[in-house]
Amino acid sequence: MAKRRLAITAALAAFAIALTGCSSSDSSADGFVGVILPDAASSARWETADRGFLQAAFDAAGVKVDIQNANGDKAAFQTIADQMLSAGAKVLVMVNLDSDSSKAVQDKAAAQGVPTIDYDRLTVGGSASYYVSFDNEAVGKLQGEGIKACLDAAGKSTARIVYLNGSPTDNNATLFKAGYDSVLRPLIDSKAYTLVDDQAVPDWDNAKGGQIFEQQLSKAGGKLDAVVSANEGLGLAAVAVLKKNKLNGKVCVSGQDATVDGLRAILTGDLSNTVYKAVKAEAEATAELAIALLRGEEATTATGVVKDGDREVPSVLLVPVGITKANVKDVIADGFQKKEDVCMGIEDLCAANGI
Questions:
Q1: 8 Å CB contact between 286 and 132
Q2: How far is residue 228's CA from residue 166's CA, in Å, rounded to a whole number?
Q3: What one-character-per-residue DSSP string does 65-80 give?
């Protein structure tokens, strides 16, 4: 486990970006950076992790930042962007709700000479100067590998599974599915695994996800071995349905984001596996690029490239880590979640798993 912890730490160290300090007066002269987060419902991470890490990164550099949340509303997303541009934002960082609405914002910003950065989600057909995220197909592969490992550990060489995919308008959801399908498709094609149903959840809506999964479970006649869910919000929505049917802990369920609730569900056995993404490094890399754009300086950290049609978008792509009971403690050791939050009321499970 120590080696795994070191691997996570090494991954963080490899991508963490050192921010260059400047005075507050410098940042006032430069204008400010506007950041638009997508919502607070699809995943807890946007408010519990990203907001704080982004704020800290800009504060460390003495750069003014305005961070707002669109709360899942595309009209509000555009209104926030308009207000930021009117107030003098010199760079916009955004996590899109879908590519079309985000592209409209990027086009308007570009017309005013304001560069944009896609944070976590690529705006397909957009004009962002940079894209900062994780290798999202690798995230999906970790999800698929975790599901297979769970089924193998249960001695199931044959299995009935469903896909509970993320929003069809989110390019990341497409990449996640490509990743887990690449792991599981050979087993599906060989008839070892039966893909009972394959559905996407509009807007990453967890309530809708629970309703869709209830239909999937009914279609499966109540007999399922695994739920390949694209994040912990959807996975926990599936778990709630499984609990009503006294099936939780008997069905492998994937997730991602390493939220407090997700890690607790890993320890209780309700989720089989999740994916930890080092949001602090993602936020710091984004701040580094935004500050370079703000100051008209050359950025040297976006060494990767992501294809968007014929356009090559300079990118920073960080490394995700698969999480099971065996290494939940490493997420806590890295400071991403607090032991007291994860272990409240399940102290015995934490102790049994080295936390």
A1: yes
A2: 11
A3: EEEEE-TT-HHHHHHH
Output the 3-class SS for 106-120: HHHHHHCCCCEEEEC
The 8-class DSSP code of residue 20 comes to P
| Model confidence band, residue 298 (pLDDT cutoffs 50, 70, 90) | confident
Give this prediction's pTM: 0.85
Domain 2-135+278-319 homologous superfamily, CATH: Response regulator (3.40.50.2300)
Q: In terms of Cα–Cα distance, which of 79, 45, 84 is closest to 64?
A: 84
Token pair for 273: 């596996």
CA distance to 65, 140, 259, per residue, from 101 (Å): 22, 25, 28
On the question of a common fold for 2-135+278-319 and 136-276+322-352, the answer reads yes
Annotated domain spans of the chain? 2-135+278-319, 136-276+322-352
Cα end-to-end span (Å), the chain: 11
Let me know: does 239 contact 255? Beta carbons within 8 Å: no
